[in-house]
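[Automated response] Your request has been received and processed.

Submitted sequence:
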Amino acid sequence: KISAIANEYGLSVDLQTKVWQLTVGQQQRVEILKALYREVDILIMDEPTSVLTPQEVDQLFTTLRTLVDDGLTIIFITHKLDEVMQVSDRVTVLRKGKVVATILTTKTDKPSLARLMVGREVIFRLEKSRLERREKILEVNNLQALNDRGIPAIRGVSFDLFGGEILGVAGVSGNGQHELAEALTGLRKSTKGRVFLGKKDVTNSSAREMNDLNVAHIPAERIRIGVVPALSIRENLILKKYRHSPFSYGEFLDNKEIEENACRAISDYHIDAPSCETPVKLLSGGNIQKVVLARELSENPGLIVAVHPTYGLDIGATEQVRQVLLAQRERGAAT
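Generated structure:
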């Protein structure tokens, strides 16, 4: 029955694979299949397209229209205004936990919705200056690696990345992007090929070694990989550098320096939290991402590996993340 549902609605996924071995996008398909299998009357979807490609989103929307035509009621929660305009009949806007408007989709537009969402005008198209190519930061030659199931996921990837350059890696979820990011940040061993950071061979270096070489990693799964949810903001901000001065001396942590660092990060990155002692698990997705950005970018890294950096963020937080990455580009970082 599950196979029939998957085929009917175009939700392809390997049903014999363990869920932890699936990508985030594939796991989302599993959640949708679970709901359809239960024959629900009301389907609540919270950011279902966060890590899907445009083609996958179009396929999902075709599925949703079929479900609505069959009489299903869908509550579609998203920060993506294009999706709101494309798929909804009616829109309710929440800001800081309060309803600020409920309007027919045909009676509004993206700028108006954005203004309602964040309480100010939002810049949809960011300007970036033309930069001269700088020194080579990263060189990847014929890189190969396996996924968690032992199947080849990266098959001979090669590219160069220069300072002041942002390289986009596109593709349908589950086609090696996740494994590539992990291979570049020391979280996954490659089976063949070489990786050079500057002129240094860093092939199969550990995550700590890549951290010590000032490589920043902004993972797609901010809760599972990017932070320790039970720890406070100030503790999460020093996860990569607590062993070093000024945050430690000998075997002891310097709490004053740690707190001052947290206060600076909260101010610089506009992290909305009661205090630096607040557990990260109590923050919104956007504020958790700001904690990750503050930690990863505080040392002015030479290389930034960012995977879906605006995943699940509202339009205001998305604007800020993009501005931060463009500022790093202007500084000369490779992303």
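Summary generated for your ticket: Residues 4 and 10 are 10 Å apart (CA to CA). The mean pLDDT is 85.
If you did not submit this request, please reply to this message.
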